[in-house]
Design goal:
By secondary structure, the protein is mainly alpha-helical. The protein has 2 domains: 2-88, no CATH class; 108-498, Amino acid/polyamine transporter I, CATH 1.20.1740. 61% of the residues lie in helices and 4% in strands. It is built from 17 helices and 4 strands. A 4-stranded antiparallel beta sheet has the order 1-2-3-4, with no helix packed on it. Helix 5 (135-168) runs antiparallel to helix 12 (312-339), helix 6 (175-183) crosses helix 16 and helix 14 crosses helix 15 (410-425). The protein starts with a strand and ends with a helix.
């Protein structure tokens, strides 16, 4: 199906609304109902919108008459012909302000900071307690390997997400629509189960941790601190525009970098560079699950894809840079903790375990304690924002509720209230569950599932041919590696936990 809309400013309605399909826009109400509709400037415009596979012969005729249409399937806006102006639009669709009808493209910088803020969690400060046995050199190699794996996983999510938007003709599609389109009902069940469990468990942990920090700082009851944290950031996610959320999140990330820089400055005194060369490769496999968990961000990739209007080069840049910031932070912090004291290794070369990697820094300087609390609160806040956006978008797609300017409050209520109440009643249950099943859920959801969806989309023939070229090279070999590597880690961890 294809649609051509000819509209004057007086005929324009809302842009970006969900509907069951597109047709020829003959009235103001029809234009208002379109998912991807008209973006006009003064003087009017002609917009061509396409859904599903185009007619090749008709496309040639349109090209010869001045319309530059997409060459593959999907709903895509390629050329906007304004009276007196001819300009190519590279993006898939346009995000418009529904009041002013002005184009409001998502910011690449905000997308980078959203991914970085979601990835960086307060747990980064305690990761050296897991990597100390393998040493800095070996754990750094493992960290870079896990980073490459998780970058590839996120790019696979972006590839399938953009192709799903093209095929369905709808922005804001989440893992539900992606799994249903590529893997069918069983894929939806697996995706929903793992996604909901991981997100609710982590949101419970974030709220519980933030309320502890706020209560220790100002003395308010725990439930009041939790309500303030949940209400303020949850309200930001619901009421705030992309620009406002991006500015707030960017400010929090700047605060994270500042407090982290102070911790590194204090901790780097007495750094022993020779100790950084120690490597125990046999201990590396035990640290991989924890390191991989530190690079979870894929839940916000659909949000970023919609914000950046399906522009895959921008999405790829956001993923690489957004995860590159946490990678650098981890490597620096790992070096500071594992290289600040030669007493980490005794005379026989045996590693002396540190139950709390911050204990030495706390005893060295009185400023470390407050700085750690500030860093932790900011890191929890940025991760909380990313997970709220990801889960609410998931629930919106699951229940087929409207997004955009007329978003329904129900997904946000379901996102915020259950973890709030659970964090005040029995958060230890979720900590235990997350400790046991978090590794398996994350590797299934963000390791096996993206590769399986990409495999089905590219090679199974169960859905329309992809509208974009693969952005993760290597074909079947690469996808098989993603599935096999996640399966190997899951199996190894299961054997380790079950063995006496």
């Amino acid at each position: 199906m294809e649609a051509v809309a000819i509209a004057l400013p007086s005929q324009l309605g809302c842009h970006g609304r969900r509907c069951d399909g597109v047709g020829i826009f003959r009235s103001r109400s029809a234009v208002r109902g379109a998912r991807f509709g008209v973006n006009v400037r003064r003087g009017g415009s002609v917009v061509v919108v396409r859904s599903k596979q185009p007619d090749v012969e008709q496309e040639k005729e349109e090209l010869s008459s001045g319309f530059d249409m997409p060459t593959r399937g999907g709903m895509k806006l390629e050329r906007k012909l304004e009276f007196g102006e001819d300009r190519r639009v590279e993006r898939m669709f346009s995000n418009l302000n529904e009041v002013s009808l002005k184009h409001e493209p998502g910011s690449l910088l905000n997308a980078v900071l959203l991914i970085a803020g979601t990835t960086v969690g307060a747990g980064i400060l305690a990761i050296p307690s897991v990597t100390q046995e393998s040493g800095f050199l070996a754990s750094s190699v493992a960290c870079i390997g896990c980073w490459l794996y998780m970058v590839g996983s996120g790019l696979l999510v972006a590839e399938v997400n953009v192709n799903t938007m093209c095929e369905l003709g709808s922005g804001g599609v989440s893992l539900v629509s992606m799994a249903l389109r590529t893997l069918g009902d069983w894929g939806v069940r697996v995706a929903c189960g793992a996604y909901l469990f991981i997100h609710y468990a982590l949101l419970v942990a974030y709220i519980a941790r933030s309320s502890d920090i706020v209560t220790n700082a100002v003395g308010t009851p725990l439930w009041v601190s939790a309500a303030l944290f949940t209400g303020s950031l949850g309200g930001l996610c619901y009421f705030g525009s992309q620009r406002v959320i991006g500015l707030v999140n960017g400010g929090l990330v700047v605060g994270i970098l500042g407090s982290f820089g102070l911790l590194v400055t204090v901790g780097s005194a007495g750094l022993d560079f020779n100790s950084l060369l120690r490597a125990n490769w046999e201990a590396v496999p035990h640290s991989i699950p924890v390191i991989a968990l530190a690079f979870v961000y894929q839940n916000v990739v659909p949000v970023v894809s919609t914000s950046l209007e399906g522009d895959l080069p921008k999405i790829r840049t956001a993923v690489v840079l957004g995860t590159g910031i946490p990678l650098v932070l981890f490597l620096i912090w790992n070096a500071v903790i594992l290289g600040t004291s030669s007493s980490l290794v005794d005379g026989s070369g045996v590693v002396q375990a540190i139950s709390d990697p911050l204990l030495r820094l706390r005893s060295a300087s009185g400023i470390v304690g407050p700085t750690v609390e500030i860093f932790s609160l900011l890191a929890v806040a940025t991760s909380f924002i990313g997970f709220v956006l990801g889960l609410s978008d998931f629930l919106c797609d699951l229940f087929k509720l409207p997004g955009g300017g007329r978003r329904s409050p129900l997904p946000y209520i379901l996102t915020l209230l259950p973890p709030f109440f659970l964090s005040q009643t029995s958060p230890e249950i979720f900590y235990q569950a997350l400790d046991f099943a978090g590794t398996y859920g994350v590797l299934v959801l963000f390791g096996i599932l993206p590769a399986a969806m990409a495999w089905s989309e590219r090679y199974s023939g169960t859905c329309l041919p992809p509208s974009t070229k693969p952005i993760v090279p290597g074909g079947r070999v690469t996808l098989a590696f993603f599935i096999g590597a996640a399966g190997f880690v899951i199996t190894s961890e299961a054997i380790s936990k079950l063995s006496p």
